[in-house]
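Z., the sequence and structure:
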Amino acid sequence: MRATALLLLAPALAAAQPAVPEGRARARDLGVAPGVLAPGRWNAITDVAGVRVGHATVVEGDSVRTGVTAILPHSGNPYRERVPAAVVVGNGFGKLLGVTQVQELGELESPVLLTCTLCVWRVADALVDTLLTLPGMERVRSLNPLVGETNDGALNVAIRSRPVRPEHVRAALSGAREGPVPMGSVGAGAGTVAFGWKGGIGSSSRVLPRPLGGWTVGVLVQSNFGGVLTIGGARVGEALGRHPFTRALADTGARTATPRTPAPGTADGSVMIVVATDAPLSDRNLRRLASRALLGLGRTGSYASNGSGDYVVAFSTAREVRRAFDAPRLQTTELSNDGAGDLSALFAAAADATEEAIYDSLLAATTVTSRGGTVDAIPIDRVRAVLRR
């Protein structure tokens, strides 16, 4: 445990994995690039300097398809060097653990971890165990782990066994790294379903031009929700006959369900959205930033259905706004509402990067089979054909 805890404080040295599996794609490969702002080097949340992402994918037998994804805001001790943060709830049908303290104090004191619904508490317990072993934590008696989830029980049919174990959490934390973010059916996205197709992890970023501050906004999503899939304004879900209303509307394009193919897409499920920025924002303005991510979610065809848990966690990595846990007073320098750095551009970046990250979560995902059935990866050639119309 001690070795793993120390790894939490230093960049991981593991070999980088490709962002997208062979044969899959990202939205920009199809000519889809939301907004007018440019992405960062990796077009991922890790374009925000210091942010690292790690996955542990858990596949066991024919019944376990799940995992853990860890987002670390910086390379230091997250408890002792806290970052301002905010949580926005689009639809509260979920089990986001640690949310009330973040809302009350406006700060994050742990990495953000994502997993499956019934694994939240085991993941939080393992995260707390790991953090308490860090240097300087010997007298800590209160810790607020932030752990989000989506329900991957359709493919992860052994979800009741709560198959994510402490070693998986430690692997995600110690394997977190900067650079390309593996996307698709990995980590917390291993068993998720979105718009009736295989969902998963997606990420994107935007860099503001210097006249607007030069800040970076990065987004990572765990997609497990539905609606009528829309890509770049094209109604892909309708064209491919897979959306929640195909049967009720008797759409002629609807596919006949078979044991291998799920019924046309359901709208229920959940989505976790994590927004990071290096702009020096207070928790108040981070809440405003997070709310714009929901606009990007809506562009993809979601309408925050009754059974969907839609959450956004936003944090700033800027040193000017970090909060030492033992500081008697905080002296921070935050971006002004009316200053040279344009908050509106940051808002646009959050919406655009969220939209693209959701597309990437689908396009990068691979077909997954379990005892619960098979969920197909969205057919890229057919998506490309719809986009060309």
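Residues 36 and 174 are 36 Å apart (CA to CA). The chain has eight helices and 15 strands.

Let me know what you think.
H.
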